[in-house]
Amino acid sequence: MAHLAIEGVSKLFGTTFAVRDFALEVGDGELVCLLGPSGSGKSTLLRMIGGFERPSSGTIRIDAKDVTNLPPERRPTGMVFQSHALWTHMDVFNNIAFGLKLRRLPKAEIRERVENALALVGLADYGRRMTTQLSGGQQQRVALARSLVLEPKILLLDEPFASLDQHLRERLREEVRDIQQRLGITTLFVTHGQDEALALADRIVIMRDGCTEQIAPPSTIYRQPQTAFVAGFIGSMNFVESHIRNGVCEYPLFPLTVPVEDGPVTLASRPEALAIRLSDRANAATVHRTVDFGTHKMVDVDLADGTRLKAMVAPDDRIQAGMKVEPSFTSFFAFRDNALVHESMPSKSDAEAGRLLPV
């Protein structure tokens, strides 16, 4: 296991910051996901940790040792790329053994470590197959085994499942999480898929434009977003633009108490915290459509100003397209200039009454 410390790291390409003044500490055996849209700097940051890019400024330490300027082969890290990067002229065994041979280890030790790595990723009988004979998921397992066989202190995963179909991606991420916990290896996982981050991470780092928006465990990121960007990036979120006057929201359907200074505000609420009921009011909203997911229904609701909201309701709910409804927030956040200025959580009675479905 290992401790990683990233201290004020920046990366400039020309005059543009790909990463700006980034700081993070990752504890022994922790799995941290770097999550953000394309161009947010997460892969550049991972490559700097692995030694494939050199920071413009800042320091990277592994177990208190400064590795900022060390080349990849001298760092105690192993990196798995999205493209697998396997040698097609070698069989599986020799792909995995390549790094061990460079270290001039005895043949018997190489064989033992390769066989152990293959067993670890569920490919015990695949050593003599050519990589071109493998499926995409099997190739990614080989790429993972090739990194693990070197016994790195820190495992770096750069969107390793992006090219795989959804079901295979879900299965492999569960396997990777099991392997990571079994080995207790410190891991950084780059992804732009929020479902992967929520399923895998001990903590999530939300990045935007090379900077950190929020660092927290998945449940905190989902339930307590600190910026409007994080609120909209993780899960589904309803946003309503309004104005506060004398501590009250002026939007007709949402006359909520928001104890902040007068001015514009963005209200935000999860679909499971949006209650709807039939209404004959003149300014009522209209149900656009319903989608049945088996465990619940998702209802799209159009407000009079064109804003579309999503409500999560029970699967047997009789709400249908075209109905007039009145939406209300059972919990909500208020943001101004991207920053959280107020949050209202559901009362205990609301939760007990089942108005909020479990996340």
TrEMBL record:
BP terms from Gene Ontology: quaternary ammonium group transport
SUPFAM superfamilies (alphabetical)? MOP-like, P-loop containing nucleoside triphosphate hydrolases
Keyword terms: ATP-binding, Nucleotide-binding, Transport
Q: Which residues cross the membrane?
A: none
- MF term (GO), any: ATP binding
Q: Which InterPro entries does the UniProt entry name for this protein?
A: AAA+_ATPase, ABC_SmlMolc_Importer, ABC_transporter-like_ATP-bd, ABC_transporter-like_CS, Mo/tungstate-bd_C_term_dom, P-loop_NTPase, Transp-assoc_OB_typ2
Q: Which residues form the ABC transporter domain?
A: 4-234
Q: Which Gene3D superfamilies match?
A: 2.40.50.100, P-loop containing nucleotide triphosphate hydrolases
Origin, by domain of life? Answer: Bacteria
SMART domains recorded: AAA
One cellular component term (GO) for this entry is: ATP-binding cassette (ABC) transporter complex
Q: Which family does it belong to?
A: Belongs to the ABC transporter superfamily.
Q: Which PANTHER family match?
A: SPERMIDINE/PUTRESCINE IMPORT ATP-BINDING PROTEIN POTA, SPERMIDINE_PUTRESCINE IMPORT ATP-BINDING PROTEIN POTA
Q: What is this protein called?
A: Putative spermidine/putrescine transport system ATP-binding protein
Print the organism lineage: Bacteria, Pseudomonadati, Pseudomonadota, Alphaproteobacteria, Hyphomicrobiales
